[in-house]
Amino acid sequence: MTVRTERDDHVVTITLDREPKLNALDHPTIDALLTALDRVEADDRVRAVVLTGAGHRAFSAGADIPSLAGSIAGGPERALREFVRRGHALTRRIEEFPKPVIVAVNGLAYGGGCEITEAAPLAIAAEHATFAKPEVSLGFPPPFGGSQRLPRHVGRKRGLEMILTGDPIPAVRAAEIGLVNSVVPADELLGAAHDLAGRIVRHAPTAVAACLRAVTRGINLSIDEGLAVEAACFAATVPTDGVRDGLRRFLER
């Protein structure tokens, strides 16, 4: 078992559990994480997800290199099929997940671990966490969406500095450039992530899902196209209990 899940009321914690391998992402681990997300989406009791890694050294060191090497040895088509498409499926699933995913970065987040952080809508880092894009040292660009998401989130020049050098940055710098929301002491990390989740799940799940959908779908569109997405997301909430209850509470104050 390389992925553990634990539910606490409306919040599920998913833990990458390959601590001796720094929670590296081999093919079975990616598949197990995708399966866990499928189950969480189908469970109406769950309203938010905290995603973290086992231990204190790493959230995830990224791709499992022996697994990657095996795929690459089979040539471009096999590498694309087994590795790149699998990684794209994971980061896109996290990015488009209808319930908020909060990454709790409990150590280094390199390669695929950094790309998961980029894809997630929210992230909190422990003070000792570090982030890096070391793929260039292996001879290829980031393959799980990092060449596209990171520059969009932090700016082209900041993104390219990380991508082209492979050098790690500390948690404080990650917060400065917008890669994570905040930095906390390591022993407060999961508590801070669950506190953030609690501040979200107090709101109607239909409203939360609509907010996530509006931002995720609209962020890379023109303003006019984005406003159309926003309007559609608003319209979808109009007939919901969340709107009826929210308006009633406001009017009865």
UniProtKB/TrEMBL annotation:
Enzyme Commission identifier(s): 4.2.1.17
Organism this protein belongs to: Streptomyces sp. R44
Gene3D superfamilies found in the cross-reference section: 2-enoyl-CoA Hydratase, Chain A, domain 1, Lyase 2-enoyl-coa Hydratase, Chain A, domain 2
Catalyzed reaction equations: a 4-saturated-(3S)-3-hydroxyacyl-CoA = a (3E)-enoyl-CoA + H2O; a (3S)-3-hydroxyacyl-CoA = a (2E)-enoyl-CoA + H2O
Pfam families: ECH_1
GO terms (BP aspect): fatty acid beta-oxidation
Record CDD domains: crotonase-like
Keyword Lyase: yes
Protein name: enoyl-CoA hydratase
InterPro entries assigned to the protein according to its UniProt record, in alphabetical order: ClpP/crotonase-like_dom_sf, Enoyl-CoA_hydra/iso, Enoyl-CoA_hydra_C
Family per record: Belongs to the enoyl-CoA hydratase/isomerase family.
Keyword terms: Lyase
Annotated GO MF terms: enoyl-CoA hydratase activity
